[in-house]
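Hey, weird one. I pasted the Light-independent protochlorophyllide reductase subunit N sequence into the form twice and got a warning about non-standard characters only the second time. First submission, copied straight from the form history:
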Amino acid sequence: MGVSAPPIQPSPPDILKESGQREVFCGLTSIVWLHRRMPDAFFLVVGSRTCAHLIQSAAGVMIFAEPRFGTAILGERDLAGLADANEELDRLVKDLLERRPEIRTLFLVGSCPSEVIKLDLAKAAERLNTQLLGRVRVLNYSGSGIETTFTQGEDNALLAMLPLLPSADEEQLLIVGTLADAVEDRFRLIFERLGITTVRSLPPRRSTDLPPVGKGTRVLLAQPFLSATARALQHRGATLLSAPYPFGVEGSRDWMATAANAFGVPAERFNAVLDPLVERGRRALEPHREVLAGKRLFLLPDSQMEIPLARFLSRECGMELVEVGTPYLDRQLMAADLALLPPATQLSEGQDVDLQLERVRAARPDLVLCGLGLANPLEAEGIATKWSIELVFSPIHGCDQAGELAELFARPLRRRAVLQLS
């Protein structure tokens, strides 16, 4: 007897598609959580001083610190084609590795400036791999924000690692997407108690400890913005499990139920393990639900996490969804969460920021989930906001974190209520 999970229904057809001026964060931002995940890796951005300042600001790293990322700055001569950027890049990499011998994987990260001048980082990585054979692996991917949203930086980084994954047909569960170490440890413990003993992660905690992939691999996505990685894993023979994302109690339980069904875990065992976690998570939600229930929420497109977050906030916190926007809608990856949204939910894909702001002002929602560039202007107009990027940096996955996730949305409403009273 299998574990119960909601059936997947066709996604709603009424989607407003927009194309125009966008307000997005740069894909280089993904380095901030990836470099914490893999301490033996280094991310070298090939870009401008603006790129360097962005990453320093996003990471909150002091200028005298030496984190596991840096910028090979393209100067005016590089941008004008008057200098050999490849020669300079080789010199910088050599100096870096002499100073940081612990590096095992070096990512060359493309930026808007490097892509504009057509600097071929794939060839640079190939050349450096030949020079540094046996010393370090050099990979490359694009973190440019020209055509992407900021979370796609992780998708591109994982895609760059995929050719290095060994092939194996053993049965395993592969959790894909960066998680906080404590959250991942908790998930592994739960799966172990369910009897799923071979559980691996991508990205791994060590960049050289790459998981195998093959016909016995069942992929469970922990993050909803990994479309290219998911399809590449399927191409390698893995099976992609369709589940809601593990945000909130319901989503986390159904996420685990999907894995349990795939590995034949008996319903009695599943319920014995999950029921106490579900009950504890629901109790943690209650004080925040009192603040959020009945409040109107507008989700602007920014991170691709909007649809599963909307599902959580409407079903478990009682919020009313005015509009749910997403930069890109991958129907396959979002099928389970789309099926759990209220039937009349207004969805939008893409962005025309002026038109969307007009709808926000007309609706006057209680709370808007949006990027950093829109938060302050909306706050100045008296509309409470929540930064979408904060959700990527925070440990929000799993039943145990449901209360913390709800609190992130309740906090700006509580703050506004206090300010109005004062």
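That's the output from the first submission. The warning seems to come from a hidden character in my clipboard, not from the data itself. The radius of gyration is 22 Å.
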